[in-house]
Specification:
With 300 residues, the protein is of the alpha+beta class. It is 25% helix and 21% strand. It has nine helices and ten strands. A six-stranded antiparallel beta barrel has the order 1-2-3-4-6-7. Helix 1 packs across helix 7. It is globular.
């Protein structure tokens, strides 16, 4: 029996503040953009092994699409593009395409892909909370979260395809938030299947950390300039970062050990400080990342 379809109000992107005409603008534009703005056609890093989709499977998929309720997927109404690095290993960097749904005024949840095309691989998730919620987390939990101030102010984080005024309003909402990101499929390392355990990801906090050529490649593909975004966002206030976030900066990077034997980005390297409860705690990389020999492009 097919479940009845129930109408559901789409959440506003005027999260984190009371709605106003200006704050509603990103919601109106992004609700359309998530379906129609492709950000330049960013291909997936890998091709998954397996047989081609059969006509029977295609027919089943078409029937399910027509009859089944997909409310959690339909709630996604924002597309953000940015960059991550592995906690404890800044030289391992990658582009991340976020498709996000607003749960309430203080919580956003995003699924992360390695591209923005139909066969893009689902490589992780990010949960985003306001400072109001973050500051009440236990200290040990805070070490898993990263700030978004630099990502916004530097122009690295973008909402492809929407007008500047709408993007800036959205960035005002995100600049003071915190993200917890796990990647489960490491296509940046050319893994054609989701092997091994998830890995904790972090966001950049200063100029010179992200690989410039990776950002330039993204900008060319999407027809934007991060430097222009940075200038356009000068008027966005940069809040102080709450204590406990970006723990890697103080040598407190947390990373999971992998019992399957999969190599994960220098695991067990001299920088490791020990482990507890299955976690490898590695020294953070506070300085600039090397500009060569990285594996974070993943073919982008």
């Amino acid at each position: 029996m097919n479940a009845p379809r129930h109408p559901r109000a789409r959440p506003r992107l005027s999260h984190l503040s009371r709605p106003s005409p200006a704050s509603l603008l990103p919601a109106l534009v992004l609700a359309v953009c998530v379906a129609g703005c492709d950000g330049g056609g960013s291909a997936s890093n890998v091709r998954a092994p397996g047989a081609e989709t059969s006509p029977t499977t295609k027919a089943l998929d078409a029937g399910a699409a027509a009859l089944q309720n997909r409310a959690p997927i339909e709630a996604i109404n924002a597309y953000l593009d940015g960059f991550h690095f592995y906690a404890g290993r800044m030289e391992e960097q990658m582009e991340a395409h976020h498709y996000c749904a607003i749960l309430n005024e203080d919580v956003i949840q995003c699924v992360i892909y390695d591209g923005n095309v139909k066969d893009a691989k689902l490589m992780g998730v990010e949960y985003i909370v306001t400072e109001r919620l973050f500051k009440d987390l236990p200290d040990a939990e805070k070490a898993l979260w990263h700030s978004h101030v630099h990502e916004v102010k530097s122009g690295q984080l973008v909402a492809p395809g929407i007008p500047q005024v709408a993007e800036n309003e959205l960035m005002k909402k995100l600049v003071g938030t915190y993200g917890k990101t796990w990647h489960t499929w490491h296509t940046d390392r050319q893994k054609t299947l989701p092997l091994g355990v998830p890995q904790l990801m972090m966001g950049f906090t200063a100029d010179g950390q992200v690989h410039a050529d990776m950002v330039e490649a993204r900008d060319r593909r999407m027809g934007i300039r991060s430097a222009d975004k940075k200038q356009e966002r000068e008027s966005i206030a940069a809040p102080a970062i709450a204590p406990g976030a970006d723990a890697w900066k103080n040598g407190g990077a947390v990373q999971l050990r992998d019992p399957t034997g999969q190599e994960h980005h220098g695991q067990g390297s001299p920088g490791a400080q020990g482990h507890r409860d299955g976690q490898a705690v590695q020294a953070g990389t506070a300085g600039n990342a090397p500009q060569g020999g990285h594996a974070g492009h993943g073919g982008k």
